[in-house]
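Lecture 7 notes: from sequence to structure.
We start with the chain below.
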Amino acid sequence: MNPLEEILEMAHKFISGEDRSIDFVAPMEGFTVEHFLDSEVVEFLAEGMSLYRPWEGTPYWSEREMLQLLEDFVREFGTAGESRI
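Predicted structure tokens for the same chain:
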């Protein structure tokens, strides 16, 4: 599986509700930086992942905001995304 497929699989896991914990998102952020440092994927995901703290309130991101980000990510990169990276 290539890195794009892996990050999309992680996004689907969050979207499905299988795991929405900070303990899941933090390694997801590390994976994104490691594999997509100079790509649109990091630009798209980095802020939301770094600010995901569903229990903290503003200025941190809620579960709903993270869900929206990952749904948008899957729509944007899920089918034609490989050609953009």
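Points to note: Residues 22-36 form the longest helix (15 residues). The CA atoms of residues 4 and 82 lie 7 Å apart.
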